[in-house]
Amino acid sequence: MAELLQYVANGFVGGGIYAIIAVGFVTIYNVSKVINLAQGEFLMLGGMIMVSLIGLHVPYGLAFLLAVTAVTIFGILLQKYVISYVKRATPLSLIILTIGVSILIRGFASLIWGKDAFALEPITSHEPISFGGITIAQQSVWVIAAVLVILLFLWYLMDKTMVGRKIKACSVNTKAARLMGISPGKMAGLAFAISAASGAVAGIVIAPLSVTSYDVGVLLGVKGFSAAILGGLGNPIGAVIAGFLLGLLESLGAGYISSGLKDAIAFIVLIAFLVIKPTGIFGERSVGKGGL
Amino acid sequence: MRSIVKKLGIGFIFYLLLVIIFPFLLSNEYYLSVGIVIGLHAIVTVGLCLLMGLAGQISIGQAAFWGIGAYTSAVLSTKYGLPPAIGLLASAIIPGIFAFLLARAIAGLQGYYLAMATLAFGYIVQIGLTEWESVTGGANGMISIPKLQYFGDSELSMYYLIWAVVTCVLIFSLNILKSRVGRAFRAIHKSEIAATTMGIDVRQAKLGAFVLSGMFAGISGGLYAHYMGILDPQPFGLHESIKFITMVVVGGMTSIWGALVGTVLIDSINEMLILLSEYIPGLQGDVDTIVFGAILVFIIMFMPEGLVPRCRAFYEKVKAKKRKAAGSQQAERKTVA
Predict the structure, then answer these.
(1) CA B316, CA B304: separation in Å to the nearest integer?
(2) How many CB atoms lie within 10 A of CB B127?
(3) What is chain A's alpha carbon radius of gyration, rounded to the nearest angstrom?
(4) A71, B250, B279, B328: which is deepest, by most CB within 10 A?
């Protein structure tokens, strides 16, 4: 029983990160119908910039702010100067473009930081906490706190503010939104900013749990994309639930079946779900078959 | 002779000549091995071009079929002592079956969902190859896979064997392009609904495209295993799948020749980068990743149709202009007269 609880706790931490990445995917997708496969690189950049700043003896809080700001600006520039310039955008070409962007970022990261793995100091001490038979790192608590704060903030932004309504208007009908005086281009930039910022935060909080290196973004991005698809593309609540589900599945699979097969289990479940229900568990919210 | 030239086209004859004389132009073991690798990649990319460019279905897991093909032939000939010919046959059939099952399962998916499913499949296969140690040797891989010795043991004979396969695949694909099946693929690419109303069985056609591209990749994988002599699961992952996509996209997705040109181009750039990194030791990172990423971004942003269709369009334009100029000159002469 304690074993099971431990796996669930671990799965919850991993799942939270997947949930944030998945929400990032969905935010961008809803506004601009773009799947940004470079999403995982935002996490990598966040973590690596943080490591560099800490190495320069910048205080933790300031370094955090600087890293998140840098990644956010990067996200906005990416949307403004690359993504929005594509002629005749189809899902096929957008997928290829964002794959290109992501390997470009990874390549530059490997030039700047080299191929070594870096460790980031946790926010509080290394001492693990144990209660009720399970043991988790203090940093895991911070991860879960960060995940909850980000999700709450996004919910508030989307549901309670005018900006959120504008973003939603763009996702429902771009032309009608334009007629109401909303600039879809600006909203797309904002969506990129939001998902870059949340990705950077996620990248920074998970970096101390293991190590961070130039290539951590690939698998994280792919897992986040899986969660977004599993939850039904365009459905933020579905994405969050699917993210946690994926994290739990992986943790349980790694614990009870085989740690080597951990990733395979998640992907097999994903394909199985897609076969049974081609539009994700909770169905798509926005129209269109995966952007086509 | 004339009719053969006409039937195949001057481009094809030119291609054949180039393939045949290449080993004599650059008679060096290194260039020959590059030529072999290009040929192996070309078999995969021509199949991927049928799937992506013609039928409009994305696959971010093509290296998985390549890997399945490689391991099928390697395991059959190394562990069970079967002749490589049977292994190669199986390396076409087994990935074909995998592609069929995968496509059967996900035939209803489109766009991003399809991308995700093929991506997941690629990961599953690579993990499976690593974890199924009793058969595949796990992360350590397999060694002493027998070489193909149909025309002797030399590198040169391997080169000709592989390019013979490339040529067969090319002729097959070019013929498909002109057939009813090819037209059905292109109709699906434009619009699945419109294709359905024209009486095309969309599901069947998609299945066909997947199985064909899977089989091509498998054949190439089988040849790769026997050429290399050793195998490990590392080259059959996402990185290689993306490289295949880059090759197809650079040359032009809608053109079979484009896939070939793209393969030659990307593999040549790759080799050049490897040579360069020997002279410039400061390049410690993945310079090839930067270059390929930049190429992908550049092509999609400024030349989404790819090199070969762009060049062809340019050529047609120049020809039209010339004709026009000639026509107006004639007209002038007439008015003067």
Answers:
(1) 18
(2) 20
(3) 19
(4) A71
Chain A nearest-CA distance from B32, in A, is: 29
Q: Is A226's CB within 8 Å of B116's CB? A: yes
Locate A248 and state its tokens. Answer: 């739990």
E strands, chain B, are none
Q: With contact defined as beta carbons under 8 Å apart, do B233 and B136 qualify?
A: yes
Residue B18 in this model has a pLDDT that exceeds 60? yes
Q: What is the model's pLDDT at position A289?
A: 40
Q: How far apart are the C-alpha atoms of A148 and B68, rounded to whole Å? A: 42
A102 touches chain B (CB under 8 A): yes
Q: What's the pLDDT score for residue A18?
A: 92
CATH code, residues A2-289:
1.10.3470
Q: Please state, in angstroms and as integers, the Cα–Cα distance from residue B11 to each residue in A179, B5, B46, following that order.
A: 52, 9, 17
Phi, psi (deg, nearest 5) at residue B157? -65, -35
Whether residue A199 contacts residue A71, with contact meaning beta carbons closer than 8 Å, is answered with yes
Residue pair A100/B302 in contact (Cβ under 8 Å)? The answer is no
| A94: closest chain B residue by CA | B300
DSSP B51: I
Residue A262's pLDDT is what? 81
A28, A44, A267, A273: best to mutate for the B interface, most B CBs within 10 A: A267
Sorted by sequence, the CB contacts under 8 Å of residue B149 that are 6+ apart come out as none
Residue recorded with tokens 């999403």: A39
The pTM of the whole model exceeds 0.80: yes
| Six token digits for residue B66 | 């390549």
pLDDT in tens, B242-280: 999 999 999 888 888 999 999 999 999 988 888 887 777
Is the Cβ of A59 closer than 8 Å to some Cβ of chain B? no
Which region holds residue A90: left if phi is over 0, alpha if psi is between -120 and 50, else beta? Answer: beta
Nearest CA to A228 out of A245, A209, A208 is that of A245
Distance from CA of A23 to the nearest CA of B (A): 16
State yes or no: pLDDT of B79 exceeds 60: yes
pLDDT digits (tens, 9 = 90+) for B190-228: 888 888 888 888 888 888 899 999 999 999 999 999 898
